[in-house]
Design a protein that fits this description.
Helix 4 packs across helix 5. This protein is about 45% helix and about 20% strand. InterPro entries: Methyltransf_16, SAM-dependent_MTases_sf.
């Protein structure tokens, strides 16, 4: 009986991986590979029906182009192994083919699509949750861009953002009841995860107004209320714990930034452009090291003051893929010049379990996690 239950749980997990990969719009080859594994190596009627039903739902959600690609790949794979393709699969693919030109034109006009990122929690250790299936996952719908090479990078989902989100969800005790400030928030995924683990305050920022607008839409899709700095009237009280701010690093004033006084600063894939480093690090210094006036009128850094009072100083967690060694070394040099300390925490604090096991396009091993603090 125990073996039967274990096999049933494994089967459910594999089906969940297929669905999650599809909803995240993973490469169709990855979805097909997961589906083949799920069905014991061949495309059974049940797995074909599963993929067909998800494709129908995807088309209804505006992701018809992706659904068409997957159906084409499924039909080719089944025919190659001399199997029988379900009539519904053929009919759905034919429907997409008949509307292909209209869909292609729509994609050219609107390059935004919806991906559903599913974080799958194992039933072990700190992830132990009730047996209800819905409690085993967090599904985050995100509107994002397919056009990341033409000025829409902020609306794309980057590996470091996925890593930082896994980090937040894996170590909720670091963020619960803390004031958190993210630089370069992009689609808002990390902020949504911070809200999920009950951060006291979540301040999301980006220097691009179009990216900021897309981020706000994603917060709404995930049922999160937020304060909009651009619409807020002077003196108006804050009623929500999520706030969106337009913050170009090059024009942000030190006094403006230091007013936020976060406990934790976060950043995903912000170490990429050497010309931005002085501005980014100036912002980090303002967030991490704030002046506090002594009784005698002189100033000391608040890091020292808060430590004396028993409070931990602010810390920044930065996740990044090191794509160019020279660029990263230039960043390290500036960190030192700014009198900041940086520590590689990748091995010490990497998430103990993969919360995105179905996502073959995401190579977690290439992402590094750093902490940055004032000396």
């Amino acid at each position: 009986m125990a073996a039967a239950n274990e096999n049933s749980t494994e089967s459910e997990s594999q089906y969940l991986h297929v669905l999650s990969a599809f909803l995240a719009m993973e490469p169709v080859d990855s979805v097909i590979a997961l589906a083949r594994k799920c069905s014991g190596g061949s495309f059974t009627e049940s797995i074909q029906r599963l993929l067909w039903e998800t494709c129908v739902q995807a088309a209804a959600n505006g992701n018809a182009i992706y659904a068409k690609k997957l159906l084409k790949k499924l039909i080719n794979e089944v025919e190659l192994e001399k199997g029988e393709v379900l009539d519904e699969v053929y009919e759905e693919y034919a429907l997409h083919m008949s509307t292909a030109s209209k869909e292609d034109a729509l994609v050219k006009e609107n390059i935004r699509i919806t991906k559903f990122i599913s974080f799958l929690f194992p039933e072990v250790g700190l992830y132990k949750r009730p047996s209800c299936p819905s409690s085993r996952k967090l599904v985050v719908p995100l509107q994002c861009s397919l056009n990341m090479l033409e000025g829409d990078t902020g609306c794309s989902i980057w590996p470091s953002s996925l890593f930082l989100s896994e980090f937040v969800l894996s170590y909720p005790e670091l963020f619960t009841d803390k004031s958190c400030f993210e630089v370069g928030s992009g689609v808002g995924l990390v902020g949504i995860c911070l809200a999920h683990v009950k951060a006291k305050k979540v301040i999301l920022t980006d220097g691009d107004l179009l990216t900021l607008s897309n981020m706000k839409l994603n917060l709404e899709r995930n049922h999160l209320n937020y304060d909009d700095e651009l619409l807020k009237q002077p003196g108006e009280a804050e009623n929500t714990r999520v706030k969106c701010i337009h913050l170009p690093w090059e024009t942000a004033s030190d006094s403006e930034v230091s007013e936020y006084r976060p406990d934790i600063v976060l950043g995903a894939d912000v170490i990429y452009d050497p010309s931005c480093f002085p501005h980014l690090l100036r912002v980090l210094v303002a967030l991490l090291r704030r002046p506090t006036k002594r009784d005698n009128g002189s100033f000391e850094t608040e890091d020292r003051a808060t430590t004396l009072q028993g409070r931990s100083p602010a810390v920044a967690y930065i996740a990044s893929v090191i794509r160019n060694a020279d660029t990263f070394n230039a960043f390290l040099t500036l960190v030192d010049q700014m009198d900041l300390s940086i520590t590689d925490l990748t091995e010490e604090l990497k998430p103990p379990y993969e919360l995105l096991p179905y996502m073959h396009s995401y190579d977690r091993s290439k992402v590094r996690l750093f902490s940055i603090s004032s000396r």
